[in-house]
Input
Amino acid sequence: MTDEEQVDNKYYAQILSDVALLLQIKGANRYKIRAYQNASRAIGGLNEPVEDVLARDELTDIDGVGKSIASDIAEIKKTGTCQARTDLLDELDPGLLDLLKIQGMGAKKVKTLYDELDIKNIQELKEAAENQKIRELDGFGKKTEEKFLAEIERLESDDGRTPLPSALVLAESFRDELADRDDVERIEIAGSIRRQKETIGDIDLLVASTSDPTPIMDAFTKIAGVSEILVKGEKKTSVRTVQGIQIDLRIVAPEVFGSALHYFTGSKEHHVKLRTRAKRQGMKISEYGVFKDGDPNPVASMTEEDVFSALGLKYIPPELREGFDEIDLALEDDLPELVDMKHIRGDIHMHTIESDGEATILEMAQAAKALGYEYIVLTDHSQVLTVANGMTPKRFARHIEAIREANEQIEDFTILAGIEVDILKDGSLDMDEELLRECDWVVGSVHIHQQLDKDAMTRRLLNAIDTGLISCLGHPTGRILGGRPGYEYDLEEVLQACKDKRVAVEINGSTGRLDFNADHAARAHRVGVKIVLGSDAHSTLGLEAMPFAVGQARRAGLTPKDVLNCLSAKELVASVR
DNA sequence: GCCGTTTTCGGCCCGACTGTTTTCAGTCG
Output
């Protein structure tokens, strides 16, 4: 994330999490450990910089932060770390934290390995395992040793989380493999995909069935693309695919599908908060339902709505279940009515054969109309992007005419003339001003000179916004999902300028980007900047990336009135510049 | 270490699977 406040909060969260992990290895009181975990999670999920809270002297108002951890946080601000962590690291070893990244390795095992074999890091673990020293320890065996070696090898070649769009494709293919079976009554993709998280750690599938689960589990493990079976039981089976992604399959009875779906959708943080709250009310929540203390029969389990309702809460959409403030909002009936695909009336960012797209103006329009849209904006590239066959002013002038003509040929649909104009190194725009004024919508994007330093990039964007010619900033961070991190600039300053100059910011839904992401979009929204969603389609098929943009908007808590695509074509154009 | 509609003590989310045991601790999500 290029989001500064999140990076800062994440740093604080990490230090506290380190303390929790080191305490675990040391074998400290488990509730003290949990206190540090809770505080770490709370700081990581704050909606404002923790340093602002510190400045107001209100740290202990944060749920999970008491006097002791508040003083740790003050110390981190001053010194970059805290005494608790320093002392633990003196006593233990920093490499032990890495050991915990190994699947199947928890604090107890780390402690045993450290005490018995003086293993302090992954390299030493690898050597001990290769020399078959691990299997001699009490509580360890040959299998554990072999698992460690395999896991170390995997960690060494691992490239992290999977972007949502590719994870979704894989999840859907596995879902579809099982969906047609007679013994599968229902199957849903749960987990972070359902929450529309921009990157995915693993995939969760949930099946409702009344039959013997074994054949379903067998079929699951035999799907083409499974490279390894990690866990296999009657209720839960986990595999790893050739892409290195873990897929978990859970099977439950149909009458508990709602509570199970809620459970497997997560997030963990959401559940911890919800369950703690339920417990105080004398109730228990599990994947099998909501239970009143002592009663083996659930008061709710059939649907997710039932589960929330039994807890006295409004339905919380999956995208908001991150353990931030959604439970309080649901309690007060104050949840945002999230924007949905059904609210989206048009798409503001796409390309045709005029630059680097694969379809004509009319083909794009007809495809968009078939998707139920009322309008599109065609935004081909400007000339500096020669690799993308960018338009010269002359070509753009003709293109505008062609768009106006095409617009006459299609009924009950509006094709707006636009451009994705490059924001040049100094912030000037790569097109004649007159033509930019003539067209309906201007996406301003950075494609070249991405390596400017922070000050220069900030000035560049401010200059571009200052022209008054841009309708929205396209893919505003420039990051490639799972690839390059995006250019550096002062986001707060740029957002403020966008608000002042009535420039919207795009959530670009194209599968490689998701840019802005939900965090950025939420931040823009707080500043009061309007959000607009674009598919950045380069073909008719590319138009189908819009749901990813909607997903990020939903995670950001945006309602239809916050998203310009929910306006008519006329209102859209009038709402900016 | 944190918290309070049982508030200054006595609790702290829940269940599945594995490997190592021979009834369960550890780990994971």
Observations:
- The mean pLDDT of chain A is 92.
- The longest strand of chain A covers residues 414-422.
- Residues 4-26 of chain A form the longest helix (23 residues).
- The CA atoms of residues 338 and 557 of chain A lie 6 Å apart.
